[in-house]
Specification:
By secondary structure, this protein is α/β, with parallel strands linked by helices. It has a domain at about 25-95 and about 130-180: Double Stranded RNA Binding Domain (2-Layer Sandwich). It has four helices and six strands; from the N terminus they run αββαββββαα. Strand 5 (about 125-145) and strand 6 (about 150-160) form a beta hairpin. Mean pLDDT is about 80; it is low at about 1-20.
């Protein structure tokens, strides 16, 4: 019985640790206060989205179009490539970042405490350097008739190896996180 309790405790601690280490993107949005979002019924996509870097549509653009279409459909809008009320554009940017932090050392023994709490005063510290890629996804919604931006949403977060391996799913989750801030709520939950 003690062994089962110990296994349960270790499993629970591991799950808590994984959840604590998981990073979710920070999202931001700006809305034109004069825009009448209730009047927008149709949407289309910019002819040459900023996520295309060649003479053809990238997979990233394709994935983003599908995700955004699902979000706008859930908000009662209809796709109209010929005469849309709003036009959607995307931009994806990545940059390398470096983060440094001091951690306690004592022949490496007390490193297990990092980042939860510091040791007693008087311990030595070492500097650890972490390098990672940060990504920013912007989604612009522009009034097609007035040719002006009425809403922009963005997500900023670490791009992990898992994200790159599951790009479609990762972009879908980022788009969903961004659209939480859209001025018109979804009528139904979009399945990911």
């Amino acid at each position: 019985m003690a062994r089962n309790f110990r296994n349960w405790l270790l499993a629970g601690a591991g799950a808590l640790l994984l959840n604590a280490c998981a990073s979710t993107p920070n999202t931001f949005s700006q809305t034109d206060p004069n825009a009448d979002f209730d009047s927008y019924r149709t949407y289309g996509f910019h002819d040459d989205p900023a996520t295309n870097t060649a003479e053809y549509e990238s997979l990233v653009t394709n994935f983003l179009k599908v995700s955004v279409a699902q979000q706008l459909d859930a908000r009662g809008m209809t796709y109209d490539p010929e005469d849309p009320d709003v036009v959607v554009n995307f931009f994806l940017n990545t940059k390398e970042k470096v983060q440094s932090r001091s951690v306690p050392t004592m022949s490496g023994y007390y490193g297990y405490r990092d980042p939860f709490f510091d040791p007693w005063p008087g311990y030595a510290y070492e500097t650890r350097i972490d390098q990672y890629t940060e990504g920013t996804l912007n989604i612009d919604v522009a009034d097609a008739a007035e040719r002006k931006l009425v809403w922009e949403g963005s997500a900023v977060g670490r791009i992990t190896e898992e994200f790159v391996r599951n790009l479609e799913k990762g972009l879908d989750q980022a788009v969903a996180a961004i659209f939480v801030n859209y001025p018109v709520p979804a009528a139904y939950a979009v399945k990911h």
